Every structure is written in structure tokens, then in C-alpha cells.
Amino acid sequence: QGKIVFGGRTDEKRGFEPTIVKDVSEGDSLLEEEIFGPILPLVPVDSVEDAIEFISSRDNPLVLYAFTEDEKTKDALIERTTSGNLVFNDVFQQLSVNELPFGGVGESGYGRQVLKYSFDNFVYDRACLDIPRSAESDLAVRYPPYTDDKLSFFTSPPLNTKVSESVNSTSH
Predict the structure, then answer these.
(1) pLDDT in tens, 128-152
(2) What H or E segment, with its residue span, contains residue 39?
(3) Long-range pairs for 5-12 at CB < 8 Å and ≥24 separation?
(4) What is the H or E stretch that residue 152 is in?
């Protein structure tokens, strides 16, 4: 239903060339399933809120591409959408950065690929802790009777250290 504004030609040897389709709207076949080809549908929206609502109303995309220089818009997309990857102002560079994982979430796929991330999909890091019996006397604080001294062990630093707000706000 949208309009091809770039590409769209086919070739028997190579298939079809990279294609950009604008004015793609709800109900368009380009939005029914993931596109595994060089087609980029452009969906017009009136606001960032409308864009986030549109994205959130369907299955998580493999990659979310957003073209903006506005930091508030970028932050809103990072914080309020879910996708396998999120790329600003490009549609291809994420594949050239081997240090970044590439993969989906939810219906767009599970797991990550590219070098170490491909390996990590097939291994499980199991934590193992071996406390020697000789350390038991140092751990007596965790057993009754619970005195004020024992309680203060758990309620004073370093066990009761407040995590700074800046650390909390950087995890997405």
C-alpha cells in the first residue's frame, strides 16, 4: 500500500535491489511479518509517543531503526521500547561492529550471534562457591541468637550500601 521511493527493481540473478517504501500504514503486508530482505518500510507518525505506541503494539522487532539527533527522543526509544537491537541514523553499521551482539528478543528470535556471543549461546556459566568448614566460625553471625551486634553486621556498610542513582539510571 506504500509508495516505493527508492529501488524496487528485480534481477533474476540477484533478486531485488535495496528498496525504501514510504507511507506504509496499518494493514500493509510489509508490516505483517519480519522482512528478510533489503526492504525498508517507512511508517509515518505524528509524534514520538505515537511511534512508541506503534512499536509497542506489535511483536518486538529484530532491529529498531530510528533517525533522529534529538537526545530526548533517543532516550525515550531506549527506555520505552524493546527490540533485538536499536540503531540510530543508520540501517547497516551494526553488522560491522563485531563487539556488539546481533539477535532478537521474543518473536524476533532468541539468542545472540557474532563471535563471542554466538559461543555464549551454547554454553552455560554455572557459578560454584566452595566455603571451607574452617570459615564457619567467621560466619556465626548468621545463626541465632540474633543480637544487636549481629544485626548491625547486616545493616551497616558494606552489606547495606546504597546504590547511587546514576548507576540505576544507566541500565536499560
Answers:
(1) 778 888 988 888 888 888 888 888 8
(2) strand 39-41
(3) 7/38
(4) helix 148-155
